[in-house]
C-alpha cells in the first residue's frame, strides 16, 4: 500500500518507481544542498521536508517524487556527498599509497561530506538506516582501498602479511575522524600561511601508520 508523508502526500511503496516526468538533476542538487544547509542549522531532529523544499525553492510534492521520507532524503544526501574514492592509484611505495589515502580522506572530512558526517554520527547511534548508509557510503570504500594498499605493499615486500588487511582502514578512519572532528589543533584553524588541519593530521599519522604496518617510516 502507498504511504502518506508529513505533508499528506501519497507516495508509492518502496521499490516502486515514482510516476511522472523524469527527474531534474538540477533540482536534485538543489534539494541535496538545501538538506545539508538545514541539517547544519537545525540538526537531524529539527529538519523537516517542508523546510528543505522551501530552501530549495521547490514544492514538497517535487521532493516526495524523489525521496519517500525525511530519512530517505538524509540518506540520499549522505550518499551524494560521500567522496567517490575510485580506484587506488599505485604510487609504487607504501608511503606514497598511504599519503594518497590519507589525503583523500582528509579532503572528504573537511568538505561538505565531512560536515554532514559530523552531524549524522550521533544520530546513527540510534538510527539503523543512517548507520548502514554511513558504513556503506563512507567506511566501506576506505576499507576496500586500504586493503588494496596492504596487498600491494605485501606483494612488494614492504611489509609482512597481515591477518586482516582491512584493519588499516580502521586506523585511517578512526584516527582521521578523531583528529579532525574531536581534537582539531586550534593553531591550524583558519591558517592562511601554514598547513590545514588535514595536512597536519597526515604528517602526524603517516609515520605512525607505517610503523604500525611493520614498515620503516624513513
From TrEMBL:
Q: Which organism is it from?
A: Streptomyces nigrescens
* Name the record gives this protein: TetR family transcriptional regulator
Q: DNA-binding region spans which residues?
A: 48-67
- What are the UniProt keywords, alphabetically? DNA-binding, Transcription, Transcription regulation
Q: Which domain of life is it from?
A: Bacteria
Concerning InterPro entries, the annotation shows: DNA-bd_HTH_TetR-type_CS, Homeodomain-like_sf, HTH-type_TetR-like_transc_reg, HTH_TetR, Tet_transcr_reg_TetR-rel_C_sf, TetR_C
Q: Which Pfam families match?
A: TetR_C_11, TetR_N
* SUPFAM superfamilies the record matches: Homeodomain-like, Tetracyclin repressor-like, C-terminal domain
- In this chain the HTH tetR-type domain maps to 25-85
* Xref: Gene3D superfamilies: Homeodomain-like (1.10.10.60), Tetracycline Repressor, domain 2 (1.10.357.10)
Amino acid at each position: 500500500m502507498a504511504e502518506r508523508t508529513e505533508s499528506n502526500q501519497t507516495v508509492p511503496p518502496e521499490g516502486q518507481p515514482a510516476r511522472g516526468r523524469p527527474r531534474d538533476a538540477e533540482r536534485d542538487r538543489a534539494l541535496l544542498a538545501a538538506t545539508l544547509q538545514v541539517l547544519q542549522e537545525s540538526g537531524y531532529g529539527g529538519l523537516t521536508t517542508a523546510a528543505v523544499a522551501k530552501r530549495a525553492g521547490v514544492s514538497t510534492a517535487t521532493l516526495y517524487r524523489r525521496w519517500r521520507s525525511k530519512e530517505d532524503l538524509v540518506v540520499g544526501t549522505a550518499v551524494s556527498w560521500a567522496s567517490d574514492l575510485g580506484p587506488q592509484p599505485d604510487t609504487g611505495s607504501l608511503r606514497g599509497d598511504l599519503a594518497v589515502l590519507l589525503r583523500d580522506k582528509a579532503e572528504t572530512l573537511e568538505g561538505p561530506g565531512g560536515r554532514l558526517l559530523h552531524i549524522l554520527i550521533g544520530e546513527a547511534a540510534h538510527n539503523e538506516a543512517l548507520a548502514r548508509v554511513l558504513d556503506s557510503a563512507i567506511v566501506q570504500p576506505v576499507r576496500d582501498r586500504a586493503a588494496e594498499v596492504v596487498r600491494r605493499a605485501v606483494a612488494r615486500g614492504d611489509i609482512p602479511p597481515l591477518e586482516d588487511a582491512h584493519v588499516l582502514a580502521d586506523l585511517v578512519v578512526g584516527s582521521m575522524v578523531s583528529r579532525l572532528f574531536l581534537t582539531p589543533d586550534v593553531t591550524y584553524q583558519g591558517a592562511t600561511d601554514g598547513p590545514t588541519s588535514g595536512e597536519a593530521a597526515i604528517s602526524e599519522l603517516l609515520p605512525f601508520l607505517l610503523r604500525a604496518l611493520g614498515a620503516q617510516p624513513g
